[in-house]
Amino acid sequence: MKGAIVVAATAAMAGSANAVNHGHAHKLFAHKRNADLCSTWVTTIWEETVLTLTPTQAPEPSTTPAVASSNSPVTTSSAAPVAPTSTVKLPVPTPEPITYATPGTYTVPATTVTVSETTTVCGASSTHVVPGTHTVGGVTTVVETATTITCPVATATTNNGVVTSIITSTEYVCPSAGTYTVAPITTTVTKETDIHFPIPTSYAPGTYTIPQQVVTVTETDYVYYCPYTSSTGLPTSSVVPTVIPVTLSPTQPIEAPKPTTTAPASQSEAPKSEASKSSDSPKPTTSSTPSTSKPPSGGFNGSFGNKGNHYGITYTPYYGESGDCKDASQVKKDLQEIKNEGFNVIRVYGTDCNALETVGPACEELGIRIILGVFVKGASCSYESKEIKDQVDAIANWKYLGLVDLMVIGNEVLMQGLCQPTDLASLITTAKSKWSGYSGPFTIAETLNIWERSDVTSALCGVVDYTGANIHPYFNSQVTPATAGEFVSGQLDILDTVCSGKKAINLECGWPTEGSSNGAAVPGKVEQLTALKSIREACGDRTVFFSFENDMWKQPGSCGCEQSWGCKEFFKGLL
């Protein structure tokens, strides 16, 4: 295997090994296309190089104590904020978990790591699961023909309560074309808990840095992941076997869990993350109906910035824990944080929680543009519906319409069966007639499979300026965090062809930090870092990231993931 193969003791896994009652069934080869298993492997090459880990003494606490990375649990204390008691440094830029025992404000010092050769290590990953059997980890690859692959495999051994993760290089024979997962770990748990497991992670030669960061902690035993986000090398968050895989195509994914949460009383329902479904056909039929909409006049071209940027993020003025409405001062504080993280655009789903009154003035002061929506949750898309009429009329009289780059009418209303395509088109036409102060573009937010329906394209291509879609790679079981960007970019390419001459825009896209594994799509904090980095680099200029913070007031849903899409910590790490 090219490059170095490293073994690292993952101390963070030791605590979970004792806390969870489970058994590991290491399925060394799982074929995802059908029930057949690829059970023929040629040879296994065990390579171990021990990496010496030298703990260093943590600094004494101060008003903003400097904190180094810790992989060990920290005892909770009622004293002033204290830094972790030990530091374990790996000579590779793995996202570094830091455990803070007590609330307080901490400074994470700048760190630089130089990698001289391609290096594969055991990265530590985790995911929050509900009772049941879950498959995690492993390396997923796609092969076009019968072939032999050489693949690094992460395994774990326990000695005196210490879990050591080891990378081994193994050759496997794939008897036919298909999608394979090498060495996944199947775990059964009897209660809701966190599963920790090793994953192979490769880093190319280069210099990787973590800039100095200030972290405000409001809870005890809080774990913060510090990603290395800039480098002269090209890190990869998962290992690709030494065989050229088939490019991921948007084959039919699994149905996304349908959330059952309703929003807090007296508020419009907040948006839920749904599956980014795709069609079996890679080339959807383009509507023959000529476009009758005027060209966009708001100066918006479907892009939030140059390739790799992250200019859009969804924002709802709810407190994440309770779902209560935020006041103007808290909204301004949130938007200042969003601006500081490099965003120039926010997506607001509707007018509830006094969004127009609180978001408008703050965005004007901070120089943030807005994608504004009319949220439809009832059984009608008619303007005469009181809930819709109130929103449309309020927007018509809003003095901050000059801040709006794009109007989005509805959020997955066709997918939910709340109205028919012709009714939604009629609502868009009515909104245009009511909003004389706005001359910019319009769209809707649906999934790809909805856009591919002929009744949708015939009714809506003529009244929208962009094909707006919500694309969530987590809900496709073949997509790993590392290939999330490739998947989203492929979906956008298809959406670009749906309405002739009209460009697609990704209005909602993220990766959960908790929940059940969906095939190769594994939730987790490290996985979110990997997925968002992949999406940002592949198509960040056309993506609105979901979402600013976690929504703990929602129900977790059947996927166990609906509460945990908050991604502001990732973007803080880019500063």
TrEMBL record:
Molecular-function annotations in GO: glucan endo-1,3-beta-D-glucosidase activity
A GO-annotated cellular component: extracellular region
Ranges of compositional bias, category Low complexity: 278-305
Key words, A-Z: Cell wall, Glycosidase, Hydrolase, Secreted, Signal
Biological processes annotated in GO: cell wall organization
Region (Disordered): 56-88, 249-305
Localization annotation: Secreted, Cell wall
InterPro entries: Beta-glucan_modifiers (IPR050732), GH (IPR017853)
Gene3D superfamilies hit by this protein: Glycosidases (3.20.20.80)
Function: Beta-glucosidases are one of a number of cellulolytic enzymes involved in the degradation of cellulosic biomass. Catalyzes the last step releasing glucose from the inhibitory cellobiose.
Protein family (similarity comment): Belongs to the glycosyl hydrolase 17 family.
Name of this chain's protein: Probable beta-glucosidase btgE
